[in-house]
User: Fold this.
Amino acid sequence: YKLDKIDRQLLYEMSIGTKMKELPNIIPMSLAGLEKRKKQLKVLLKVKDNTDRELILKAKEKGFI
Assistant:
């Protein structure tokens, strides 16, 4: 898996409970861009339930958070 700095920061912020609408203030990207990255991460990490919680658990399991 290749995750860049923004992917890792997105996963971290989601894991500490930051709301998606607050993320553009923290990560220099648009909300649409962040949503797209989140969707790509779910595909990359093979998230079955398609939930944010499942994405965070998979990322922790793989050692990204």
Remarks:
- Helices lie at 5-15, 23-26, 31-44, 52-62.
